Amino acid sequence: MLNLLDSMALIIQPEMTRHASRWSGSVSQWQNNVQKIRNFITARNEMIEGGLSDCYGLTGPYNITIDVEPESTGQVKINSLELQSFPWDGRYFGNIDVKLSALEINPDYEFDHWSLNNHSVLPNDSARNVTLNLTQGDYITAVFKLREFMDSLVINEINYNSASNFNPKTGLNCIIRWSMMWMRQTGC
Question: What is the DSSP secondary-structure string of 93-116?
Fold first, then answer.
């Protein structure tokens, strides 16, 4: 809000001398009024935080940082906010549940676990959707791992010109038998 106020004041300031001479007042009076608005904005943020804490019995707010590892392998949703760039910093109250969800966005990666410096999550750190009750600031990381595709068979060759004595059903059965034998031998 302060940045918005300052940008507006910079736009208006060149016109204030002419405005004051036409409508009365002074540039210093206008500057004092802008400062009063600045003071109100600053105090309002503190009053809102105090009011929420007093009314609802909240603690904090606490600074948190949310990150994703490896980079660009997933996203995180905190309460209703879907985060897309990391690391992300925010302030959240304690004594109230904060909901975290790991979002899989890269088909080659799947969610593995949550890593937190100062807290634990419920139901456990390997659940994609968890809750957290803050008691202090924290660095929270959603950790993703490479997805293993062990149950898929890919046939990437097609025979367009088979010999006249080639039986495609026999050929396919051979591939299936070989694949099952390979899976038994490797434990897949």
Answer: EESS-EEEEEEE--TTEEEEEEEE
In a domain, 45, yes or no: yes
pTM above 0.85, yes or no: no
Give the separation between CA 122 and CA 111, rounded to whole angstroms. 16
Q: How far apart are CA 55 and CA 53, in angstroms?
A: 6
Count Cα atoms within 13 angstroms, Cβ side, for 175: 12
Q: Does residue 145 contact residue 102 with C-beta atoms inside 8 Å?
A: no
Q: What tens digit of pLDDT does each residue of 134-177 get?
A: 999 999 999 999 988 776 565 556 655 666 766 655 555 555 66
Q: For strand 59-69 and strand 138-146, is the pairing parallel, antiparallel, or unpaired?
A: parallel
Q: Do residues 64 and 50 share a domain? A: no
